[in-house]
Specification:
72 residues, alpha+beta, Structural Genomics Hypothetical 15.5 Kd Protein In mrcA-pckA Intergenic Region, Chain A, five-stranded mixed β-sheet, 2 helices
């Protein structure tokens, strides 16, 4: 499991995919989400605008698992 630190209250799923270098541009997010299953805190979610907050666990099938931490 990899830890990702965010500086803001939340980050969108599309932004998160760029931060962890799964995609190279924001325009690829829609395609990536249609091809890969992503689970956030155990629930499948494919919305690129989904807000991710500190403590959220993101599992990307075929890639890795991540946990977000904030500036607490």
């Amino acid at each position: 499991m990899k830890t990702i630190k965010i500086q803001t209250e939340y980050i969108t799923l599309g932004q998160f995919l760029k931060v962890v270098n799964v995609i190279s541009s924001g325009g690829m997010a829609k395609w990536f989400l249609s091809e890969y299953k992503i689970h956030i805190n155990g629930e499948q979610d494919q919305r690129r605008g989904r807000k991710l907050r500190s403590g959220d666990k993101i599992e990307i099938d075929g890639h890795s698992t991540y946990i977000l931490i904030g500036n607490d």
